[in-house]
Amino acid sequence: MLRLTVILCLPFPTVFDAFAADDDPLYFFGEEARVAIATQRIQTPEQAPSIVSIVTRHDIEAYGARDLADILRNVPGFEFGMDVYSEAGPAFRGIWVEEGKSLLMIDGITQNELGFGNYSFFGSIPASMIEKVEIIRGPGSAVYGGFAEATVINVITHQPANLNGIRISGDLGAVGRGGASRFGNVSLGSQTDALRVAAHLGYGTTLMSRRDYADFFGNKLKLDQDTAYRRWQHIITEASAKGLTIRYQRTSFTFGGQDTFTTIQPPVNGNQVERVNNSNDVVHVDYQAKLSERWTLQPIVEYTRNNTWNFPFPASIDGLFEGSGSTLWRYRGEMAAIYEAPWAAQLRLGGGYIRDDVESVASDGTPGIQLSADPNDLGSRIHTSSNFGLFQYLQQIGPIGLTAGGRYENTTFGNAFAPRAGVTYVREAFNAKLLHGKAFRIPLPWQAFSRCLGFNGSLMPETASTTEMELGYKFTPHWVGKSNVFFIGIKDPIVYRSATNSYVNFGRIQSQGAEAELRANYTLYGGFANISFAAPGRGTSPGFTTQSKKQFLGTPPLKIALGTYYRAGNFEFAPSATYLSHRAGQSRDSANDPNGILGTTDYKDLLLANVNIVAHDVLKDLDIHLAIHNIFDARYVLIQPYYGAHAPMPAQDREINLGFTWRL
Questions:
Q1: Where are the alpha helices (DSSP H) in 513-598?
Q2: What is the pLDDT of residue 323?
């Protein structure tokens, strides 16, 4: 449907009453509210053995999301911070999950780059290509392995049956004072009894901000189209027939960077910053072989090629980095057998192999990989591998659902095991969940063997344990409320230590808190409200929190999101807002302290308010919209969630956006 732009969007399913299945107490808002991400089996959110959120196409259209970051901002638990200059990453439940703790997928295909496990947000994955987003707000390693330690996000593109033709969308926006954004997407799709195909092509560019960026050491940089740009391109295709599915995806995200420097660097050959590119190419093939009424066999083969960085021109980077980059490959093969038991149960057994390769060469031809602790033992390429096995058992006994499963990986860096267990209860209007799961993050070869980062071949997997409880109630066919509490403990997290210029396993992270949401859905009007709170546990190590240990760095302890929509004739009006409580970041004095004494600065709370107006069917199958996000131009900044001496970076100035969607 319509491609919209605003900072927030609805974090839970809302579809029109025509789709509601009010006679079935399991289905609060219809078929679009079903989810497969928790177990790879289609379930309602109440049956799924995870805390889940679903964002439907109506959510995206009504509240005016520009990209995936806008969608996640209004999902309980999610916020954003910065790593190094211009690198915007997610935090979840107070924990910085940028480096490999959050799995991001498009149509089930991993998007995390294979050097650090990162994915940079703001201006990436435009909402115009998204039909639905499924989110596990909790661990997913038992199903998905590494990167799924804290949360899992699956972006589902427009599906062939819903497209049934061509969908064209475009947007133009005015960003801050003198900045501009533009996005365009074309989706084509068709489905018959024998074949389903879809393709999505898009391009977009926007700005991080038009405000000045100042580092902690007195230097300033004017942010504009040359120093704060974000450029995105995608080609996403799918073809399925007789159980065989082939997907090809290429995404490319280019943005300005200053590498790892904490100070703004002087121009080199007239260039103030590097042009950093992260690209991802994936070929994915899977087959559903129906062996009998009860047994299905599913082999998967996948090839991925991406890069940690690629500098088309250098501006401030030193000799080892200059002109350099790293290319990474992943080869994955997996086989799963699924048995549908006659006693309302499903058993899934599987296993597979993953190989990660990295190649790195400096501009002078020097090998960029250190193969062992011997500093002279160098090479240009190295690989690591994992063998894994998994099982999952789902059992429905009346209103009670039981889940037991786990994934075991034998890796180059050591072994890891992620068991899970869950009990769900759904009876009429009431539902409840009690969940416990472990998860892991497998180190990547670039982090362990990179020469420029510093060799540490002795890295081992970090592990996490999460306990959650959820209660939900359907007050009427149109009103639903849910609340949950959680406790997360991460052991031996993989972190960068500047003192050794290497990645190491260091300390512990604990997070505890609660989330609640209320939503209403009617044909002509509806709305949502959610609140999320997270605080560090006592066992959290120094470096992740303020000195008092009462607050995580970079993220607000409290977040409240509100929104409503109203439809009159062909017009739909949807204001929304997000409140972020005060945040804490490293202080300027601390960054300049010769003794390294740590200190923090408080950043005041703020309100991000937005409004979106949609005119449906202005002409036949043509919709237009006008959106304003950050109406009051709040001085939002991205704060580094650790003590890294990087000053907060301005982001997401006020933007006025006009766009259209035309369905052919």
A1: 588-592
A2: 45
Nearest in space to 413 (alpha carbons), one of 442, 436, 446: 442
Number of domains in the chain: 1
> Quick one: tokens of 235?
């080609």
Residues of the domain holding 425: 17-663
Token representation of residue 78: 């999610």
- CATH assignment at residue 572: 2.40.170.20
Inform me whether the pLDDT recorded for 592 exceeds 90. Answer: no
54 part of a folded domain: yes
Residue 11 inside a domain? The answer is no
Beta bridge partners of 297: 289, 337
> Is the separation of the CB atoms in 415 and 51 below 8 Å?
no
Predicted confidence (pLDDT) per residue in 206-252, tens digit: 999 999 999 999 899 999 988 899 999 999 999 999 999 999 999 99
How many percent of the chain have pLDDT more than 90?
Answer: 76
Q: With helix as H, strand as E and coil as C, how does 79-141 read?
A: EEEECCCCCEEEEECCEECCCCCEEEEECCEECCCCCCCCCCCCCCCEHHHEEEEEEECCCCH
Tell which residue, 445, 419, 567, 411, has the closest CA to residue 58: 567
For residue 437, which of 153, 148, 154, 43 has the smallest C-alpha distance? 148
Does the residue 4 lie in any domain? no
Can you tell me the mean pLDDT for 586-609?
Answer: 89
Dist. CA 67–CA 652, nearest whole Å: 12
In a domain, 345, yes or no: yes
